[in-house]
Structure to design on (434 residues):
């Protein structure tokens, strides 16, 4: 573990306060304890023969330190002179979660049919803290210990550092291409919940297609005026069957939608393909394709199907020039995949280095709540209660609220449309009074 990464994690826990970070030591050398106000004693996690092996995985049940699950070290704190010495290794514990270390340790197992690490198999889910950003709780503990040691520590007021309302554009239109039109006709004729009139009306203009819910989404998102709104577009250069339907980025429908979004102040990001999940080397070509269609730079990304398979694949984003990624949520369970609700730089689990890429933790995706193979929450009330509890955690730790709602999921009989309205009302009320 290099000293720069330790220093970054300590600063992250202290919300970037460099002066306080200098008062924190990470050492087992007792002769150095007196140089610091708080010392965190490293655990065996970093030892040769443990780091990088399955022996580095925390054993369940986890111990706790002041009610917070502890991955490494012992839940013991003592005062030696003017120094608070902490044997709970919150630095290694934070590293484990922020770097997706367990996903690096399990490159092939604990995966679903798409190759994604399954949230229900994660340590956070098995230990019962998937709904808590415990890295941020470690930060609160560290600040408390600094106060106990006599340091002046100011806590940030509860609120949201940022709100991101994001939308993955898996399809621009259902029926305005040959395959979609013929499929719509077939489903209408066989009574598969599609009306023939809707299929035919979509041929008149893009605005008549059922998938064109963008004006409605725009109106809803405008109710949270401080929110950043991002639409992620596919630009696959090679495809898997899960990358369909494709749309023509240079076609009239896409150009019309791009103008509409930009005129309303929305950002456009790359929706890296499903194919790129196993072949991340194609991402620079996908990014170039999207940028050429837009005639503007693109710096944000989210993988299609949230299909980032290996932590090291983020290197392809760095190489391509992506600065911000919004993929970091589990598909099968909403919560805190990185153990934090705050934007954090990607830490390479294998090398232990901090990179320039900023990861924005995805708190919830619409279909995660309702899909039978995911959380399978049957009612809007259940989903609302669950997401509001997550939002309250984000608010408490002054994190980022990152929501993903698909334009194609706010139609039909699902509760996603009305749920989205209620969640934005909650955000508007709580950001206004923060």
């Amino acid at each position: 573990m290099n000293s720069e990464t330790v220093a970054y994690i300590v600063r992250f826990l202290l919300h970037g306060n460099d002066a306080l970070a200098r008062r924190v030591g990470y050492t087992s050398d007792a002769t150095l304890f007196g140089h610091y106000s708080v010392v965190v004693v490293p655990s065996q996690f970093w030892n040769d023969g443990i780091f990088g092996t399955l022996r580095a995985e925390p054993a369940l049940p986890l111990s706790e330190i002041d009610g917070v699950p502890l991955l490494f070290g012992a839940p013991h704190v003592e005062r030696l002179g003017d120094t608070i010495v902490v044997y709970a290794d919150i630095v290694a514990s934070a590293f484990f979660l922020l770097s997706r270390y367990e996903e690096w340790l399990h490159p092939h197992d604990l995966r679903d049919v798409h190759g994604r690490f399954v949230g229900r198999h994660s340590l956070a889910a098995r230990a019962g803290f998937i709904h808590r950003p415990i890295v941020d709780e470690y930060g609160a503990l560290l600040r408390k210990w600094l106060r106990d040691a006599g340091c002046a520590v100011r806590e940030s007021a509860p609120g949201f550092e940022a709100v991101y309302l994001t939308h993955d554009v898996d399809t621009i239109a259902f029926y305005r291409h040959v395959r979609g039109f013929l499929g719509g006709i077939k489903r209408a004729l066989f009574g598969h919940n599609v009306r023939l009139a809707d299929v035919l009306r979509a041929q008149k203009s893009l605005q008549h297609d059922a998938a064109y819910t963008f004006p409605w989404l725009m109106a809803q998102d405008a109710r949270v005026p401080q929110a950043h709104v991002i639409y992620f577009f596919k630009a696959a250069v090679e495809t898997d069957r899960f990358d369909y339907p494709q749309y023509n980025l240079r076609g009239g429908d896409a150009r019309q939608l791009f103008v509409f979004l930009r005129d309303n102040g929305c950002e456009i990001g790359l929706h890296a393909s499903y194919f790129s999940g196993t072949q991340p080397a194609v991402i620079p070509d996908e990014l170039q394709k999207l940028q050429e269609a837009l005639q503007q730079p693109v710096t944000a990304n989210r993988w299609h199907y949230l299909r980032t398979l290996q932590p090291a694949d983020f290197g392809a984003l760095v190489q391509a020039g992506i600065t911000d990624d919004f993929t970091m949520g589990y598909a099968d369970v909403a919560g805190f995949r990185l153990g934090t609700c705050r934007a954090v730089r990607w830490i390479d689990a294998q090398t232990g280095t901090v990179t320039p890429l900023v990861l924005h933790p995805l708190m919830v995706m619409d279909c995660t709540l309702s899909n039978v193979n995911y959380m399978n929450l049957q009612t809007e009330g259940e989903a609302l209660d669950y997401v509001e509890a997550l939002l309250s955690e984000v608010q408490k730790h002054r994190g980022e609220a990152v929501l993903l709602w698909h334009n194609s999921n706010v139609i039909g009989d699902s509760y996603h449309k009305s749920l989205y309205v209620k969640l934005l009302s909650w955000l508007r009320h709580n950001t206004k009074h923060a």
Remarks:
- The two ends are 38 Å apart (CA to CA).
- The chain has a mean pLDDT of 95.
- The CA atoms of residues 173 and 294 lie 19 Å apart.
- The chain has 15 helices and 15 strands.
